[in-house]
Amino acid sequence: MHLGMLLDMAADGMADRVALGPLADGLTFAELARRARRLGAALALRPGERVGLIDLNSSAVPLTLFGSAIAGRPFVPINYRLADPQLRAIVARTAPATIIVGEGVADRVGPIDGIEFLSRAQALALAEDPAGVQANGWAGEPEDIAVLLFTSGTTGEPKAAVLRHSNLAEYIISTVEYAGSTEDEAAIVSVPPYHIAGISAVLSSTYSGRRVVQLEAFEPHAWVDTVRSESITHAMVVPTMLGRILDVVEADGAGLPSLRSLSYGGGPMPLSVIERAVGMLPDVGFVNAYGLTETSSTIAVLGPDDHQAAFASDEPAVRARLASVGRPLPTLEVSIRDLAGEEVPVDERGEIWVRGSQVSGEYLGRGTTLDSDGWFPTRDEGHLDAEGFLFVHGRLDDVIVRGGENLSPGEIEAVLLEHPAVLEAAVVGIPDKEWGEGVAAAVVTSGQVTEEELRTHVRTRLRSSRTPDRIQFRAELPFNESGKLLRRVLRAELADAFA
Amino acid sequence: MGVQTKSGARFRSAVDQTEIIVVRPASEPVDLRCGGHPVVAIGTEVPGSLTLDPAFAGGTQLGKRFADADSGLELLCTKGGEGALSIGETPLPLKDAKPLPSSD
């Protein structure tokens, strides 16, 4: 299955539905396909093996995603927020390529061998030109590379995850009902185009026939205004976005009356935020989605019914599921394994492994990380409960080894966040002469708590080895724009501060 | 007698507009038909003289999925038509769709 086919199916079966933009004058699926075929025909004639994009959200994002697919070239959306040297390094790794760029980007990057820039305006003009040739069908095979996504590199040098047409298309056709959206549904897309959620939002909306309204970039007031003015029914946010959205909604008290479904993912969501969201938006169905770039987006989902059941329950095990990521998709398998690769019993922690046709687990120039049976080790730590609910505890690479004991930062962070005065918390390992690694915490608080109170709070809930040796009070934690904690940065800062 | 199915292989009906793609291949060659007549691989010639068998005229809807438990074959309709899919003379059942809550 090829991404070109998903677009053809939408254009064939839902030609006159609005695909992109305002209901009154947005692009229909037929027009979206026509423009993508024109851009695809033009891109196929341009030099380079790949098609990059360094830009904010605009109609150029879905057009370039589908246009590249039609041209048979991998689509490589790149983070425009990177500092110039990092951006230049990633662009150089994308060569030879044509790169579609927003304003000022070409100047920031400068000339690079094998890279040709095309401005967003030029790309849109090619797509819109009524005299332009439309590609007939698409180039390439289902096993060809559809998308290359650079991982955020929060723990090391960014790797380019390889997603093949078959990975992404299998994910879409197995999780989304074709034309399953009603005509009044509309999704707001505010995640950046270089995030896997930005890619999957385009694909799943196209296949389900759901109108998409884009925000150039996330900004909470613009988000709330757009949801109201465009009668948005569906949205996906990362944890840092949700808190800021709730602040805006709370301040003006006007609610989000059109919103039916709000999914969140991309990082651990503090329980306090989701409880606040459910309280403030009682008519919204909440969906917690867990997935990785390397798995073509979502691999486990905690749906609206699960949220309600967990909220309504007095049983601790059921209530705890609010902190889970739900059950794995029925189309794939999840296994929790120890360091030796042996499956561990229910409720026991280990590494999350996953297998299924949407799972790529492959990096450009590094080959596959799948084992011989097709299983992908996610490097995430987690456990499954007796009912098959999956809990994610964080990256295994973040595990702190204190005097030979493995400590999971996620567990300590969760306990810190239970304290009413703690707004944000992050725990990392720092060098320690006595223990090898010590536990250091950084917290953002409302001010009403002392270091010793926090230590006692953790000690009484976890054992003393898990109690932070050092605690730093801060105004904010270092997050990247997708809401991912920059642990490497924090670790360096705390190591410095407590050296 | 039948066609070898391979994941991603595409076929069309010989008697109507129906087109399908193989999502999961069958374990063995299958006598896959649409409108009562064997399907043909897309890109190959369609026999001209055939007409839709009224016994297999229930239609195939764009975007619907079909699965045959015996052979493991799973198909997706990528273009709708008047013919109905069958393996030999046994109609191919629709696969129950249980769409997941929208997560992206």
Radius of gyration of chain B: 13 Å
Give the proportion of residues in helices of chain A.
25-40%
Number of domains of chain A: 3
CATH homolog superfamily of the largest domain in chain A = ANL, N-terminal domain
How would you characterize the overall build of this protein?
The complex is a heterodimer of chains A (499) and B (104). Chain A is an alpha/beta fold and 499 residues long. Chain A folds into three domains: 3-217, ANL, N-terminal domain (Rossmann fold); 290-397, Roll (Luciferase, domain 3); 399-497, GMP Synthetase, Chain A, domain 3 (2-Layer Sandwich), CATH 3.30.300. Helices cover 33% and strands 25% of the residues of chain A. In chain A, the strands form eight sheets. Chain A has a seven-stranded mixed sheet with strand order 10-9-11-12-13-14-15, with helices on both faces. The radius of gyration of chain A is 23 Å and the shape is globular. Chain A starts with a helix and ends with a helix. Chain B has one domain. Chain B has strands spanning 10-12, 19-24, 32-34, 37-38, 40-41, 65-67, 74-79, 85-87, 90-91. The termini of chain B are far apart. The mean pLDDT of chain B is 91. At the A-B interface, helix 1, helix 7, helix 8, strand 13 and strand 14 of A face strand 7 of B.
What secondary-structure arrangement, pairings included, does this model have?
The complex is a heterodimer of chains A (499) and B (104).
Chain A (H helix, E strand, L loop, with lengths): L2 H11 L4 E3 L6 E2 H16 L5 E5 L5 H12 L3 E3 L6 H11 L2 E5 L3 H5 L5 E5 H9 L16 E6 L9 E5 H11 L10 E4 L6 H13 L2 E4 L5 H10 L4 E4 L1 H14 L8 E4 L6 H10 L4 E8 L4 E6 L1 H9 L3 H4 L7 E2 L4 E5 L12 E6 L6 E2 L3 E2 L7 E9 L5 E6 L4 E3 L2 E3 L1 H10 L3 E11 L3 E10 L5 H11 L8 E4 L13 H11 L2
Parallel strand pairs in A: 3-4, 3-5, 5-6, 9-10, 9-11, 11-12, 12-13, 25-26
Antiparallel strand pairs in A: 1-2, 7-8, 13-14, 14-15, 16-17, 17-20, 18-19, 20-21, 22-23, 24-25
Chain B lengths: L9 E3 L6 E6 L7 E3 L2 E2 L1 E2 L23 E3 L6 E6 L5 E3 L2 E2 L13
